Queue: 3 jobs
Job 1
Amino acid sequence: MTLLRDISFLWSMLHIAALYLLLFTPRCSWRTTLICSCAGIGTLTVINMLLMARQGPASIMHLAFFTCTLPSFLLFFLLSKHRDGRFFFLFCLMDTMSFWLMQVTNFMDRMAGGTYVVLFLSRLVLFPVVEFLLWRYLRRPYLELQEKLKKGWWLFTGVGGTYYLLLIVTAVPVDDPLPDAAGLLQIALVMLLMPLTYLTIFHSLWRQMRMYENSRQMELQQRDYNAVCQKMELTQIYRHDMRHHLAALDELLQQGNSDGALQYVRTLNGGLESLVHPAECANSAVNAILTAYIAQAADAGCSVDTKINLPEKLPFEETDLCVILANSLENAIHACRDLPEEQRRIRLEMELTENGRLIVSVENPCPRQVFFDSNGLPVVSKRENHGLGLPSIRTIADKYGGLFRCQWDTGWFVLRVVLIPPEPARAAVRRTGPLTYGILALLLCLILLNCFPPLTNALEEIPVLGAVVRVADLRTYTLAWRDDAGGAGEDREQYRGTDGPHAGISSGLDAETRRDISTRRDAGV
């Protein structure tokens, strides 16, 4: 049966490298990377198998850091594109995950009798399953994280390295006896905290990347917004100065200088053309964004049909509206650039309903059928600064509890967003949060005080605090319900004094009373 143990170890060694390569970003071509990885990991596997055959399998767990971790670290460091905190975090993540799987399968085999059959079968199944899950759900967002975020990795590397060392220290080799109950509890806690911690780290990194992308888009949109605002200010200046221009034209015509008047009109018209607003609405922020992107559409040869019905004030943040309009119109303009000029047409509708809901609809021609993933987003090629606009729009729709939908309908790509205004009642619900937390904390204190009698007894000896603790101690009321309620408090003190800090109280009691207290205690009274 030891053959199964050795094969399972070999299988684990090979899949540690496979797990790492799934999230790895090489500096060379993948062909060169795979050849070097297979050669290096194969050499390490042979060396570890020889050591295990000579010194026993238990020695591998103690020497794994020097025979597996350090050599593989140097190998992948030379092959890695990133040689900063991103590389160290990925290395700690993969090694920690692999040792975690090996320890889980080890304990599963111990529970089944230690025949190595469960050890072999569980590793044979678990490692490919984990690799599939990483490839299916984690690989693409993690590679995106590596490219977008270049800072903040060292802190998470320290957390991952600490858990890796904890697993190495608390690991139980395959043929070593299991520790006592306290040791098993420590191992279980370390193994439970490891996946929870990494899930928290990934969630934090993903939110950090989204915040970075949103801030970058907001900077670009703020720049466009400022440019449009400057044009609007110039428009107001032109309108204010229009009477002066008319007076100049009148003077030229009275002098009979028609050529000068014509030239003056052409000059004035050229200055006004750059300030024409193709879409008008009462809301200045929406109008500014529409002006900027409709001008971009005109430069790309796209006509934009608008139908906008918005008041001056909207129950939504202007920055969120800018993100929705900017991303949706930008995607539509990019899609129209690949079409013949006669097909470049965009439809935009915006309306605020009577119940305060904002409906945004953007349509653009799309001859090729579009396929959508499980999240309702179109499947597009992943390239730089592409494929991030629609997730941002969906995030804003979720923020307001609204709706987000993309669909392809007979040669048209349709994007519809519905935003629901925040309800005033939500603020009142949030104000009840501290009260809820206070009640939960009070219940937790009650549970702790009544589950640990020695702690309760010690706290009751503290002045002032002891009176409060006695109120929360359920033993106070349990003995008071007996028929002899008058002596309940005294009996309780005598009962607690037999094995607590009040042991001296029972010293003055006669033998019959002590036997009665002992009988009550043994009976659970």
Job 2
Amino acid sequence: MELLGIFHKRAHMEARGLCDAPYTEKGAHALAARDTATQEGVLACAQGRMRNAAALAGELGLMREERSLARIVLAAYGRWGNGYYEHIEGPVLTAIIDRDRDKLILARDRMGEKRLFYTAEAGCVAFADHPDLLLEAGAARPVIDAGGLRELFALGPARTPGRTPWRDLYALEPGCALIAQGEDLRIRRYFCLEAAEHGEDAEATVRAVREMLERAVDDIVPLRPAAMLSGGIDSTALTALLRQRMDRVCTFSVDYEGNAQHFRGTSFQPERDAPYIKLAVERIGCEHQTVELTQTALAQALEEAVDARGFPGMADVDSSLLLFARAIAPQARFVLSGECGDEVFGGYPWFRDARSLNAEAFPWSGSLELRAGVLKRRVRDKLKIREYVREALAGAVGRVEHLAGESAQDRCLRTMQHMCFEFFMTNLQERAVAMCEHCHLEVLTPFSDERLVQYVYNVPWEMKFLGGREKGLLREAVGPLLPESLRYRKKSPYPKTCNPEYARIVSGMTQRMLAEKTNPLVQLLDVRALEKLAASELSPTDTPWFGQLMAGPQMLAYLWQVNAWMRGRHAEITL
């Protein structure tokens, strides 16, 4: 958390010692950020990694000592005005406060690797990189209305693009800029995935993908990162490319107490990661450590994971990454991750079956009956979960641009991938960034390089499934880097705990939550139905709530997180 600002003619706000960040005022405008620059009534700030910083600084004629990101942003605004952000590349947030023109510009990076939240009312805009900062500063009230509850129970932990569960608090979407002048506010989208004909054959496409991956890794080599290594094709290929460019690469994997004993293969997770990690380490030649997490630690970190994200998240899938990042942080400042590979190259099960796209629900939403069934009848009748999901799905389908003459299957798969970027990948990106930043570790995700994403988005699906395999294009592009058994390993998601002890712990936490009638979520839940569920034999693979990883125990942990989030922020619920 490094960025907090306010834009208003009559504004006054304290910096509240935010991360020891410098605090600057321009007239009635205020900004707390690590990297700021000012000139003639204009205040600029930047946060993140600007991929083209050196080239842009040279183009703008900045001396070496003037090349902070904020100074580059300030100079870019001076050169190009309102469209300055179109010239900036990489995961970086920028803000301009122009006092003389009474203007604010906020810009979020193209793929949404950095988060930016805002609230706006009567010519006042407050913004931050973490939602809790806006609540703490009094810029937004912790009110959850019916729309917010629908986000939590119909879509959560995913969210509708631009929305949050708080009534008047919004997320700036990826590739968008917010421009406020006086009392006028508008959102301008400056980047989106565009449908275009793909004119290259399979051989040229494989070569282009390999070159783009190498370029994306080259961009981060100067940071000398460690790597999260799962033994899957995504993380292993990136680690292998990194090792070709670095003399020494430290890698880390995560496992859970008792998992070897309790693991049972499923269609989602057919095999354990450990044998493939060992194979990858031997092939690549890296220095590897395994971080083993206990069930107790996993459960105890659930609330801290909420604080890191600022919202209820993916339960222990979040808390495990937080603990994993905490173990890596003393040994590395940056860490490489294979996040986003499945979204870009079509690795999820729903890409294999066009019939999984229907008009009723997102393919990763889990059971809508379960989502509605945990609520009291009066709440359920008010929220109309199924109708909300149907409307959100229709909106998502309507935002997809198609090519003339696309086959029905290609239209379906393009729609599926576009929705996956908007709803599913953004949730996983938020998880990765928030958990790692909370532990003072910066995660690097080369698969989310917008140049690669835009290119692969328009590759025909028969090429993406080259060889009849999911992610076949990626497998072919990185094939020479990997042993055959790893190259053709069936996709397996981020590892989660299979130990029934975890289910017992979260069941007990749920029962204690339900027993305390003053807990905010208890006012909304069908307590008897949830008590019965918590007392049942929860399977790590049954009772789906979200995606491939959030089953029975994670569903209870998610609800526990929702209650902790509401309670910790003194939420006001209005139905």
Job 3
Amino acid sequence: MNNKYPHLLSPMKVGNTLFKNRIFTAPTGVHALQNGQLSFQESVITHFSGRAKGGAAMVTCTGVQVNPDTKSDGSHLHINPYTTEGLRSLYELAARVHHFGAVASMQLSDQFRYDQYYAVGPGFTKLGRQSVEMPREIIEKKVKMFGDAAEIVKKAGFDMCMFHIGHGGEWAQFLSKRDNKRTDEFGGSLENRARYPLMIIDEIKKRCGKDFLIELRFSVSEVDPGGITIEDSIEFVKLLEGRVDLLHCSCGMNNARYFTTTHPSGFLPDTPNVKYAEAIKKSGVNIPVVAIGAIQNLEQAEEIIASGKADFVTMARGIIADPEVPKKAYEGRGEDVRPCIKCFKCHDGACYYDHFVCSVNPTIGIEDKLDKYILPTAGGKKICVVGGGPAGMQAAIYLADRGHKVVLFEEKDRLGGQLNFADHAEFKRDLGRFKKYLMTQVSKRDIEVRMNTTATKKLLAAEDPDHVIIAIGADPLVIPIPGVDQTVKAPDVFGNEDKLGQKVVIIGGGQVGAETGIHLAWLGKDVTILEMQSKIAPDAWFTYKWAMDIELNERENLHTVVNGRCSGIHDGYVSYLDSDGTEQKLEADSVVLCVGFRSKTAAAEGLIVEGIPFTFIGDCKKVGTVQQAVRGAFDIAMTL
């Protein structure tokens, strides 16, 4: 046993419940793991229990609706615990989490459908419906439903439940001095504004007893001007003494501007929300405090606990990227934790795009079907991998773990491929950490790496491998614009920023162009992004796009022009045709070309050796994302 993370791995007792370490896993939306069924399917049970298997002290699951009339909408995870199937699936989920040694918690959700949208008062909009003030009878009905559902969850074997009142939702509206204008017993003083959520908490405690713990998630600060503040929350938590057992200290609201504080991106510093847990902890409240918000690695988590900023940490995206984070803590292997890159594909895919994926963990979303993807192997094959970018490195790692002899060819003097740009862009530091992780994993395995070696058909034939995996990437596209030879290609910007002038025009406003522009603006350049389509970065997943939009719209030295087709690069300016076909000019000291990439198809095909099986992966197969590169590596490695 190691002592690298002594505070993180120390047990702690809350009431009569002993938590074996300080690592919790947060309730994440996994809607895409089942097809609207009203009971937990094996896909969801395997996913959540996998977190317990990875060594977490407590696993908070999600999906149970308090409404006995819950109906399926065909896509979302809405479990009806009042049905036989729903209850039996609850038993199985709790048992599976307990089987792997974790405390089991369930978040209770209220998706009750009314003819009206009831809120704290009028003036709110949800799903296109205008709100009306929630009457007392509806409040009392919901309080009873929460008590009923908590009793069922306890009956099914769960040790505790979560009540979520943050992020600008229904109960946050009641708590907010800005939103709550009621003149009845639910408005006015803090005690009145807190009455509704406290009624639910008291009902659960009365029905389930003191040993059935309640964890409360709330926004310590809504961040939004006029919204709930840290000072408001410090006063609020005083009312929770003796009622709530754990405080999950989140922040923000569920809207495009402040959702990116709730779910931090790389545009924010590391662990930016821990300060909210620390504020509550320092207030003197006698309730254990849980920190949340992009806590990505063991060093961060250990520091949070050791410094007394919180009693526990809970992980969401980080545990999706690597469910074995706690296990690796016990083994002292922090460098082996697969880092989340904060791309939001897990969140957006599971909740909105009907396909649950993780960019760095290809087994996410298929955990219950791995026997269909991973074929048995005796190992011992010789595999040549050409290309040391993310696809090539990941393939080499998987193949070595399956007992094959791997030779990795890289034509440059370092591994990393297209990911090397992340060393120079601060907001891409998580991607840089992933690159470092891959390089570390390659170095820890018996993989023969041949740097500064350009693979050729003749060289590969001489190796006489059993299989060749080609992952040589893509080249930047160059489009026929007058003066294009004066431009700098996007990959050449990073590490050479000082060679650019002060005024920079970026031709191409896809995600790469937008990120390049943001990077240069962070360095103080005056940047204009010229995009021929009507939107900047339409290819970005939308939650990450929200974070990008803040940078694009709120930086004075970053400008965007849409519906503009570049017509030429000239000495000191760029010309373009606007939506009316009128020629316009943009002053430019330097011009960066960001119009996409083209697969190295011909070069890849030139490496095919007759009689030797081969596979293209990554950008040389089809220009794509880190997620597609890693998944392609997994797919081929698990079949050899």
